[in-house]
Write a structure and sequence with these properties.
about 325 residues; mainly alpha; about 60% helix
């Protein structure tokens, strides 16, 4: 079942345009009888509130407000309690479900898909057996409400090689990267961390792609690559040597002498490269016997001002520690 979930796309059926339905509701700001400005009843923020309310809180404003007041993990919409309360008040006044009035067919389908995914994941725990399975472990990781699900990640990693492919699929899933779906968009990063614990060489390329395509997941992906160690470092070096900036950024996090020597050698080859300043930054742990040669590069006219500033900065730091 997990394979079908992780490889699923939106596949929305309706062809209607993404427009706001305006039956019986105000769409623009107005003032009440006392001249107080009213909220927009619907805009992108309100739309997100309604969709997340229905997807994660069973359609309950009260449950949503409780989560947002307590700063829980599920409070993922960039909004305020006051905004949620205003929508709740509007809904009470209309005596009708705002989502039914205002969400488009495509929005409603997306919410329905999220709720079905919750049901599918929950069904794995319906059996009375206490047997521990990989599917249950990954479902627990996705559904965890812990701010940092360390125990759930460790439990998935206990399944060893069996867990690698499902974790890669979870990490690559577009649906689970969306905060509207179970896991609030965080499950792929948790999968990356579990792959790091497994030290899977098979996961190196997917982890690099995950990092390149998801800037918000940078820390989780890089830490996983560091955990995998030398094989990951070597692949990042090969990619960085071809000018891959994301690979170089990940490589800098390894922070060891081998990476510093690599950056120094590449810096001398790529004097005009847009990543030259990053290569210079990566030379921080350069062995002492190479530092004089590195310092001399500050006078090389082929380097940009930014690169020269990085060189000067490192040399200054080294001199302070002599």
């Amino acid at each position: 079942m997990l394979h079908s979930l992780f490889t699923r796309s939106y596949e929305l059926e309706t062809d209607e345009e993404d427009e706001i339905i305006e039956e019986g509701v105000e769409r623009y700001p107005s003032s009440d009888a006392d001249g107080n400005e009213q909220f927009y009843l619907i805009d992108e923020e309100d739309r997100d509130i309604l969709m997340h309310r229905d997807a994660h809180f069973g359609g309950s404003f009260d449950l949503m407000l409780e989560a947002y007041r307590d700063g829980e993990k599920s409070a993922v919409v960039d909004t305020s309690c006051r905004r949620i309360e205003a929508l709740q008040k509007q809904e009470v006044g209309l005596q009708n479900n705002l989502a039914a009035l205002l969400l488009t067919g495509r929005d409603a389908e997306k919410v329905a898909m999220s709720r079905k995914m919750y049901r599918d994941l929950g069904s794995l725990f319906d059996e009375e057996t206490e047997e521990k399975t990989l599917q249950k472990a990954i479902a627990s990781l996705i559904l965890s409400e812990a701010e940092d699900p360390v125990d759930e990640i460790a439990h998935v990693a206990e399944f060893g090689q069996e867990a690698i492919q499902p974790l890669i699929e979870l990490m690559q899933s577009e649906l689970f990267q969306d905060p509207l779906f179970p896991g609030y968009g965080l499950a792929p990063s948790y999968a990356a961390r579990a792959l790091g614990e497994l030290k899977s060489e098979k996961a190196i390329e997917p982890l690099i792609q995950f990092f390149e395509n998801n800037p918000d997941a940078e820390e989780a992906a890089i830490q996983a690559l560091i955990s995998i160690g030398k094989p990951a470092q070597e692949l990042l070096m090969r990619k960085a040597a071809h000018g891959n900036e994301e690979a170089l950024i990940a490589l800098l996090a390894f922070a060891n002498a081998d990476c510093a020597l690599f950056c120094f050698d590449e810096l001398k080859k790529h004097t005009h490269s847009p990543i030259a300043h990053l290569l210079a930054l990566g030379c921080e742990l350069l062995p002492e016997e190479k530092r004089k040669e590195f310092a001399a590069l500050e006078q090389d006219p082929r380097f940009s001002k930014e690169t020269k500033e990085e060189i000067h900065f490192l040399v200054t730091i080294w001199n302070k520690h002599l």
